[in-house]
Amino acid sequence: MTSAVSPGRVRQVRKLGWVRLAAAMVTLLTAQLAQAQDAALSDAQLDEKFPATRWEKRIAALEQAAKDNPPPKDCIIFVGSSSIVRWDLKKWFPDLPVVNHGFGGSHLGDSVYYADRLVIPYRPSTIVVYAGDNDLAGGKSPERVFSDYQKFVAKVQQELPEARIIYIATKPSIRRWALIDKVRKANALIAEAASKDSRLEYLDVDAPMLGEDGKPRKELFVEDGLHLSDEGYALWTKLLREQLAKKPAKN
Hints:
The protein is α/β, with parallel strands linked by helices. The chain folds into two domains: 10-40; 43-245, Rossmann fold (3-Layer(aba) Sandwich). Helices cover 50% and strands 10% of the residues. The protein has helices at 7-39, 43-49, 56-68, 82-85, 89-92, 108-113, 115-118, 133-137, 142-159, 180-194, 230-245; strands at 76-80, 98-102, 126-130, 164-168, 200-203. Helix 10 links the parallel strand 4 and strand 5 (200-203). The longest helix has 33 residues, at 7-39. The termini are far apart. The model has no long low-confidence stretch (mean pLDDT 89).
């Protein structure tokens, strides 16, 4: 015997659904408004809003970890934002001398600022960089992301002229799909620059992360639609291993 659901209960459930939908819409609109406001800020204002010094405690912790367990000679240092931090390098690259110096939420300019503490002292043979995602979401232009990439390269090459620098393209994500045009513009600028220097490499993850519908593949992301799932990291690991196996071209 089934019990009937009262009309009042049905109305209550419907009301709850509308409340949740309204809350989600408010959250989305608030985020879009914040992005629009950030996009109107100058580079100087954005630097003031996102000061590199906000990461000081995290950087100090990474330095201490490196002091306690010194990276091996000719190591591969990974630096950048949360997609680096969440990459379990020991799991995915157990056969390689990898070091994770990522700090979540960071911008590419932050990696520039801390390169002389997170990268240069350890004399890595290869540097893997992923950053730019948060920059664009924070209101920085593709040109600013490219400029910070150039600054990172210049800073590293001044001290480590033979180092191999692999830049992982800013990924297409579900949450930040509205930024895809800016993402691709920044990626194109960096890819073009990397093609002119044999020490620089650009690893495309855009096309491999898209489904037949041309949108990001859901299985590559965790629930937030931004950070990578195990399947996402399996793909990135495969792509990066293939890149690492290539012999850098000569200029």
